[in-house]
Amino acid sequence: MFSAEALIEPRLLAAAAAAVIAGLLFLLYVNRRRGYLLLWMAGWVLMAAGMMVLGDAGSVSGNLARFAGLFQTLHVASALAFALSATSMAGAPPWTRRHGVGALVLLGICLALGTPLAGGWGQVPGYLVAATALGVSGARFAQIARREHFAGAGLLALGFAAAAASNLWMVRAVTFASSETVLRLMALNFVAYAIVTLGMHLLIFEDTTRELRLSNRRLEEAREELRGLALTDPLTIVSTCSAGAATSSWSSCPARRVPRPRACTH
Question: Taking Cα atoms as reference points, which of 187, 204, 190 lies closest to residue 159?
């Protein structure tokens, strides 16, 4: 697929880039313990592992054919991690034992069918499942962008939609063994995941800004509540300022009636 004289193999370059992005997300996760950051990091790590499994794809009879099943398994697992990340932004991801069994069955099918014995058709289920998961990711992030008005979520929706379309078109490429189409789809994937990376970092900034805004609002409400408690007697619901003024006026009356100097305390 690629010439032997190529200095940089695209899949190894993609694996290195995915590993760097996962490292940056890990640094962010250390400071902000959020579930979606952990799922994003897992998705990029699985993607890097899948690209490393394929290795040098200069020969179709090499790693690309022998480890196609393992690549599809890692590819589907990465797409599922991205799909769960949108749900986890609203809280803990609703992952049950039934979902785990279903995911294991899907990964087992991808691992079993994506072998040289099945040929190009054995990779079709993996690409279809990955396209579905990425499409779900795009739809969920589009809902978040519409509800929260987050530009980062909109970029994630656009990037995942492009990646889903690329996986659907990849079905035709691997079925008919079109090397030229595969190269074009790799370029499309590069652009799509570049948009995803930008959207992730922008969404983290927007999420942090929203939390700071909500914290400031809660502090302002607490300050107003304390101010109200300080100025109002909770038993009589009378302003302490008016009560204090009345007490001061009453205490000053004996001082005016008696000629001796008196101290007014209250």
Answer: 190
